[in-house]
Write a sequence for this structure.
């Protein structure tokens, strides 16, 4: 993975929040993922294959997702299903944007949503993964990118 | 008639079943006809139903652009007025990567397949296409591997030639220390959130870089030094920016990951060639010369830089007496103490003359050992700096020995000297001195940890106004 890729993922995530919620998110300094798990309450995973392989996932708290869902749907209360859909959609949108930029020889899977704090998300061992911390309002979200 | 047709069908199925290659036919609607070989399902790892479109075999298996190109190509193949051979040159499936996913849709493995197309003519009209599918994964993987190996071999050969003279324990220590430092940097990167913290991270990064360059220089690892210097220029470019955002750290993070990968590759290479290096590497004599040469160069360069004259005496320093496991720590301490002495203690020739001293200062190093301890000393005849003078006044004896954790006052004063060694002074006279002090601080912190790790001790002895001796002792394992 190179600088352009990482910048693209950062911008794509930050833009997502601005477009959807009209409120800017800020990205922290990305870092290399080690053995320490990066998993919060809800995780949306997208598999990537084609010319480049790997996966990306976003992981965040129920509070953050429910706040975003309320903003998007204009509801006072949101259910678990909305929250699950949303985390999948965030992952999907980010990887979709990336696919648009990289062209159609980049395949993305349908999002897989993991509910609850899993031990960790299994990523390919032979590819280095980067963690991009994102802050929106006071909430934390991590985008983990593992791409050849 | 019907029996004959049935027999023909059975025969056809038997033949198709016996084929290793995948064979199928499609009509002009691109639908798979009844005749296909059973190995096809195995090759593409999916069940085939007659009537299913050929294109559907590629769903989630190959990227969209290849699917689109395939549709276009098939349309051309069904055009009677186009030459088959010419159209075949456009075959997008000549070599295609088939992707396989797990139950969550995440990519797990790939196969490389070759699809060949031939027209099936009936009354000189194209009635369909016969498609042959061959699994060429082994062939492709092998050629890819060969390519990679070739690329890797060139790189590894260059590294290996550079690594052969290095003692494996020294290299291992270098890798371990670098890895530890990288972990610390990673930790700092994760917690930095504002400008102040960014500045701190840059300071630590530069310190880490100097440490790496210094350590790699001692081992003469040229390929590594060149990579780190490249990294340094990137860090400096970013740290010089007026306004720094988190995104500016991206190239740093990427390069850090490359350095980490490099360290990992060196480790793998080291393990692979451990025995080889033991038998063919240049012997101790070469390495003994290396440490002395490194220190002599440092004395020469630093004193010239700072306009000082220093005579370096190492006749009583026996580098072959240094236990293997202590070589790195001995080198590091020598470098730090030499830097400290030249920077703070030695006066410029004019000052020395006014103090009735020889214009040229003397710096001596020596080794000593007993059955329990290995140690080395560094002695200089430069001026005693303020903290050393303070220390001297408080000690009644003409020869005082300050040892860490002895008496409260001595502890405190000894610690102050040590701290001075560890910290950059605020009284630097030039930018270059400031840079040197920063480096001393950087190096010393790591060396201090190492000394503690080896249960080593440092003593500072003053025998007169003009004489200061540092003694480092390490237990023999």
């Amino acid at each position: 993975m190179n600088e352009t890729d990482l910048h693209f993922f950062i911008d794509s995530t930050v833009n997502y929040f601005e477009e959807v919620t009209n409120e800017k998110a800020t990205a922290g300094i990305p870092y290399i993922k080690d053995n320490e798990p990066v998993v919060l309450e809800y995780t949306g995973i997208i598999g990537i294959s084609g010319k480049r392989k790997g996966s990306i996932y976003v992981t965040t708290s129920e509070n953050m997702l429910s706040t975003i869902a309320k903003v998007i749907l204009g509801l006072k209360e949101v259910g678990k299903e909305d929250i699950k859909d949303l985390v999948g959609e965030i992952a999907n949108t980010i990887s979709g944007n990336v696919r648009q930029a990289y062209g159609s020889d980049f395949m993305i899977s349908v999002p897989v949503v993991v509910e609850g704090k899993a031990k960790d998300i299994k990523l390919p061992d032979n590819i280095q993964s980067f963690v991009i911390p994102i802050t929106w309002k006071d909430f934390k979200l991590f985008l983990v990118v593992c791409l050849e | 008639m019907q029996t004959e047709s049935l027999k023909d069908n059975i025969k056809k199925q038997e033949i198709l079943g016996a084929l290793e290659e995948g064979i199928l036919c499609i009509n002009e609607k691109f639908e798979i006809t009844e005749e296909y070989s059973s190995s096809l399902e195995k090759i593409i790892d999916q069940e085939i139903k007659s009537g299913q479109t050929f294109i559907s075999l590629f769903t989630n298996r190959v990227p969209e652009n290849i699917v689109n190109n395939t549709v276009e190509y098939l349309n051309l193949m069904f055009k009677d007025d186009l030459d088959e051979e010419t159209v075949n040159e456009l075959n997008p499936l000549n070599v295609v990567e088939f992707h396989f996913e797990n139950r969550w849709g995440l990519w797990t493995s790939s196969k490389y397949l070759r699809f060949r197309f031939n027209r099936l003519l009936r009354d000189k009209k194209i009635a369909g296409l016969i498609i042959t599918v061959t699994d060429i994964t082994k062939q492709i993987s092998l050629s890819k591997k060969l390519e990679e190996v070739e690329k890797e071999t060139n790189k590894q050969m260059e590294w290996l030639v550079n690594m052969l003279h290095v003692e494996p324990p020294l290299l291992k220590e270098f890798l371990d220390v670098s890895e530890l430092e990288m972990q610390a940097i990673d930790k700092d990167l994760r917690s930095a959130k504002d400008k102040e913290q960014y500045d701190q991270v840059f300071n630590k990064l530069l310190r880490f870089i100097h440490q790496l360059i210094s350590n790699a220089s001692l081992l003469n690892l040229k390929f590594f030094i060149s990579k780190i210097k490249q990294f340094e220029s990137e860090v400096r470019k970013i740290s010089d920016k007026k306004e720094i955002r988190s995104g500016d750290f991206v190239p740093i993070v990427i390069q850090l990951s490359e350095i980490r990968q490099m360290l990992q590759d060196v480790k793998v290479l080291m393990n692979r060639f451990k025995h080889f290096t033991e038998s063919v590497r240049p012997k101790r004599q070469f390495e003994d010369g290396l440490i002395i040469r490194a220190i002599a160069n440092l004395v020469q360069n630093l004193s010239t830089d700072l306009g000082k004259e220093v005579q370096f005496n190492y006749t009583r320093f026996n580098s072959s007496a240094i236990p293997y496991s202590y070589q790195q720590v001995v080198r590091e301490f020598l470098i730090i103490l030499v830097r400290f002495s030249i920077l703070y203690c030695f006066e410029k020739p004019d000052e020395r003359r006014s103090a009735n001293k020889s214009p040229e200062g003397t710096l001596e190093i020596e080794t000593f050992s007993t059955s329990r301890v290995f140690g080395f000393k560094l002695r200089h005849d430069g001026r005693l700096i303020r903290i050393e003078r303070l220390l001297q006044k408080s000690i009644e004896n003409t020869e005082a020995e300050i040892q860490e954790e002895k008496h409260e006052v001595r502890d405190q004063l000894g610690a102050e000297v040590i701290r001075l060694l560890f910290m950059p002074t605020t009284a630097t006279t030039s930018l270059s001195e400031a840079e040197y002090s920063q480096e001393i601080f950087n190096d010393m912190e790591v060396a201090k940890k190492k000394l503690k790790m080896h249960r080593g001790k440092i003593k500072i002895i003053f025998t007169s106004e003009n004489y200061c001796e540092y003694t480092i002792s390490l237990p023999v394992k």
